[in-house]
Design brief:
Distance between the termini: 14 Å
Number of domains: 1
Helix content: over 70%
Mean pLDDT: 80
Order of helices and strands: HHH
Number of helices: 3
Length: 146
Amino acid sequence: MAALASIATLVGAGASIYAQNRSQQAQKATQLAQAQVNQAAEGQRQQELVAQQQTDQRARALQLARSIATTRARLAASGLSADDGSGAAITTGLAADAAASAQDSDAAFRARLASGRASLLNQDTSFTGFTRASASIGGALRNLLD
């Protein structure tokens, strides 16, 4: 009868290990699917950010061109040359201000892109299944030795 109890304990431990293994496989498949969904969402978010950045760059370039054209027209209406002296300084200043604004915008864009990236420290697998299986095997062996 004692041998039958030991065999039943082993069968129970084996069934428990099998169930934990299947559960772990299902959990791993779910984690993989979730990781793929997250990766696709992150890719979409980055594409949207890139498109927004490109739109902003075009808008800034257009605004700069309009500002320079307006300034040149005002200077010409005043009888000043837009290519020499203070006219050139004004247009150069507008271009420098636009470049500084573009650098700030680019820095913010890079920060937004980096904010959504997953850390390399995020775990994608679990050690829990192994530890639970070890505990089950240890319990079964202890029962056999008793």
